[in-house]
Structure formats: structure tokens, C-alpha cells
Amino acid sequence: MIIDAHAHCDNTEWLGYIDSPDRIVSLMDLYGIDMAVISSYNDAPDLEGRVVDYIDQGAKKYPDRLIPFIRVNPAHGEGTLEVIKDAILNRSFKGIKLR
Hints:
Layout: E1 3-8, E2 10-12, E3 17-19, H1 21-31, E4 35-39, H2 50-61, E5 66-72, H3 78-90, E6 95-98
Parallel strand pairs: 1-4, 4-5, 5-6
Antiparallel strand pairs: 2-3
């Protein structure tokens, strides 16, 4: 089994990054990758939940292929802790990526 431990799945048009779950899985199929750990290009909670929802929905669409990690910046303090709790306890996230 091949697992990509660092993949980005996000739709950040203003940065020019449009990497949907469908595109990520398509690239995985092309290169023989079985599963990928995905996180966003942006830190949560910067974009008021949009990033968290996007990653969560993508992972739920491909539960046997995509492993969601919440990307956070610890410098954001208590807001960061609340986002982590929500991601792990109430959503499909399996881990944390620190910036």
C-alpha cells in the first residue's frame, strides 16, 4: 500500500490553488497512490470554517482514500483549540498538521 503523507486539498482561488477532492483522487489513481493525508493550504480558523468544511466533505466523499488532517497555527491561541476539538470530535478528521 502506498500512502502520500502530504497532500493539499483546497479551493483557494485567490492563491491560484484549486485542488478538489476529485482532482486529488484522480492524481492518486494516475500515480498508483492508495491513500493520502490531506490538509488545506490555509490555517483554520482563518477562513471561518470554510477550510474545515471543505476538507471534511472531501474526506467523507472518499473515506477509503483520503485521510483528513486539520491544519492550524498554534499562535492563534484558544480559537485554534476549539477548531481542533470540533474537527476531531465532531467531524472526520484523524490528525493535526501544525504550521
